[in-house]
Amino acid sequence: MGIDERKSRVLRAIVSLYAIGGEPVGSSLLSKHLDLAVSTATLRNEMAALTRLGLLEQPHTSAGRVPSTAGYRYYLDNLMPEDCQLSLREKQVIDEIFEALDYDPGRLAKGAARALSELLGYSVVAATPKSEDMRIAHYELIAAGRYTVAVLAVTSAGGVLTRVARVPQAFSDSDLALCETLLNRALCFISPDDVGPAQLTEIRMALGKSEQTLFSIVNAAVTLLREAGRSSTYLAGQQYLLGWPELSDSLPDILELFADSERTQRLIIPRTDHVTVLLGEDLPGKPLPGLAIMSKRYLAGGGLTGAIAIAGPERMPYHKLISKLNYFALLLGRAMSGNKEEA
């Protein structure tokens, strides 16, 4: 479906004005916004035509128009302006944000999501890359209490995973040193698939009389090995979802969606390098009317990809958000890969 230039300008203007005010747009407001030498009656005719095409909706008989989901999709696919270029100062602000982040991959993604959310005032979701080749390079054990041990695992990508193990009885420093040595000997630089009953039996035997005390630590180390290459998702700024009346009915389902890490990853990791926008009505399974998810893939080195996405109402000012989303994705990918190249 194509529309002529004047209808295109009318639809683009209504999308922009509705994003600003959240109120139906009437012909008088539209006339002030558009630089068109036409009467308000002509604009009402164009709005009526766009309504018949399904691109606009009229909430009330005497009200103005708002974009429909089909109207937003047409706008996104055909009419959205190029993203606004960031100013030097805007880039400096984001650069400073990244300088202060923890560069452990999981904490980096979580910190970037929180920072972008606070910068924009929208909910943000970040997904870390999934790597089938990720391995544990080193284990370290730290006594956290008389009956608890912090298990630290450094991944082959330089990330740090942690888990706390509880043991049934007190242990000595030599017990902990023995267990750490065995973990580094048996579980480093191997695939999780290579850890089976035989390997665990060998570790049990090597622990000797300390086996009953320390084997929960071994289980924690194996769990970290299995988690090392998995992708994780982080949602920041959930409170911003509460501020959009059009999302109130869908809010429980939206939060349930983002709590499902695997489903979220399938939705927010684009297949291309371009920013993509998924509207709630188009979600597979249960639609979430009024929701929009704008996502950008980032490259984390070694062919690995993750994503960062902005979640909000359909009436988000997409063209104003894209530039910041693009720049965050660029810096996040470089930080993940250790590339310090100038942006």
Share of helix, binned: 40-55%
Q: Residue-averaged pLDDT, rounded?
A: 90
Q: Give a quick account of the main beta sheet: strands, pairing sense, barrel closure.
A: 5 strands, antiparallel
Per the principal axes of the C-alpha atoms, what is the gross shape?
elongated
Biggest sheet, strands in spatial order?
A: 7-3-10-9-8
Order of helices and strands: HHHEEHHHEEEEHHHEHHHEEEH
Distance separating the two termini: 39 Å
Q: Which class of secondary structure composition applies to the elements?
A: alpha+beta
Rg, nearest Å: 26 Å
Number of strands: 10
* Percentage of residues in strands: 15-25%
Task: Figure out the total of helices.
Answer: 13
| Uncertain residue ranges | none
List the helices and strands and how they pair.
Elements: H1 5-21, H2 27-33, H3 40-52, E1 56-57, E2 66-67, H4 69-79, H5 88-99, H6 105-120, E3 123-127, E4 136-143, E5 148-155, E6 160-166, H7 173-186, H8 197-207, H9 211-227, E7 233-236, H10 238-241, H11 251-259, H12 261-268, E8 276-279, E9 291-299, E10 305-313, H13 318-337
Antiparallel strand pairs: 1-2, 3-7, 3-10, 4-5, 5-6, 8-9, 9-10
Describe this structure in words.
There is one protein chain. With 343 residues, the protein is α+β, with helices and mostly antiparallel strands. It has helices at residues 5-21, 27-33, 40-52, 69-79, 88-99, 105-120, 173-186, 197-207, 211-227, 238-241, 251-259, 261-268, 318-337; strands at 56-57, 66-67, 123-127, 136-143, 148-155, 160-166, 233-236, 276-279, 291-299, 305-313. It has a five-stranded antiparallel β-sheet with strand order 7-3-10-9-8, sandwiched between helices. Strands 4-5-6 form a three-stranded antiparallel β-sheet. A two-stranded antiparallel ribbon has the order 1-2. A hairpin with an 8-residue loop joins strand 1 and strand 2. Helix 6 (105-120) runs antiparallel to helix 13 (318-337).
